[in-house]
Fold this sequence. Notes:
Structural class: alpha/beta
CATH topology of the largest domain: Rossmann fold
Shape: globular
Strand content: 15-25%
Number of helices: 11
Radius of gyration: 19 Å
Strand order of the largest sheet: 3-2-1-4-5-9-8
CATH class of the largest domain: Alpha Beta
Distance between the termini: 28 Å
Bound molecules: S-adenosylmethionine
Amino acid sequence: MTIPHLVQYQGSKRNLAPQILRYLPNNFSRLVEPFSGTAAITIACAVYNKAEEYVINDFNKPLIDLFRMVVESPEFVASRYEEIWSDQHYDSIEHYYQIREKFNLTKDPVFFLYLLARCVKGAVRYNSDGLFNQSPDKRRNGTNPKTMRQNIFSISSVLKGRTTFSSLDYKTILESTKPGDIVYMDPPYQGVCGERDSRYFSGISHIEFVEELEKLNHKKISYIVSYDGKCGNKSYGEELPIELQLEHIHLNAGRSSQATLLGKDSVTYESLYVTKDLIKHNKGFAGGKDSNDRLFA
Ligand SMILES: C[S@@+](CC[C@H](N)C(=O)[O-])C[C@H]1O[C@@H](n2cnc3c(N)ncnc32)[C@H](O)[C@@H]1O
């Protein structure tokens, strides 16, 4: 089954979704994603109809406004994207900079969609005033409107009428969780590229994050955490403490583009921490068991 996605987004878990979904049961009440980004796991989960309801939250408000609009008004977003995209043909680089300026003034979600579709590596960058300052990818024109339309409508069809959107701090979202919810967390990398990581609006403190997970344990809420302290090909971040009693799994993330460039054959692994009750659901979801995903467990 093809899983739709809106745009390329740095840190997206789209490629790992089949491995992560193995730990989710087939029928549960609500999936909560406090650091949703492009919501790759929520979308995959909804395509397989695993949960009844979804909570999509991210500190990045324009991104959440965009997702809300995609889900609730797909025709409006698809048509406006097509207009903006089609306008770029005379001088596509200049057009990008004009839209970037307009976005910084208005925070219009569809301008943001175009910028995400055209910027370098789908990497969101802000300056110290919170203005989007990423450059255009000069080799690409951004997703073709036809493909974008298909993705927008597919995402809307699986999430409409059962999704709540917010742009709050993750702690507020965790506080609102209730028994029966499953939480998937993919926080920003552990401040390893500087405490004020310009890729996102905010980094998070490791200690505070661990405290929040303790609270979830106390409330007996099931959860999954992607937690890697990687920046480029180096590993910095701390592991989650053993006291949290989580299963630590290493997912096979394939060959890194960096390793490929250097002619190396090294595979990268990404950490996943799973509450013990969810381990039993890993019965070879989506095409059989992958022996690599628990290689170091
Ligand atoms: C690694 S990305 C998530 C990527 C996502 N899994 C995907 O598939 O696209 C981390 C996200 O956390 C958000 N974020 C950063 N600090 C946050 C906070 N304190 N509360 C909520 N979201 C936050 C960032 O805006 C970013 O989109």
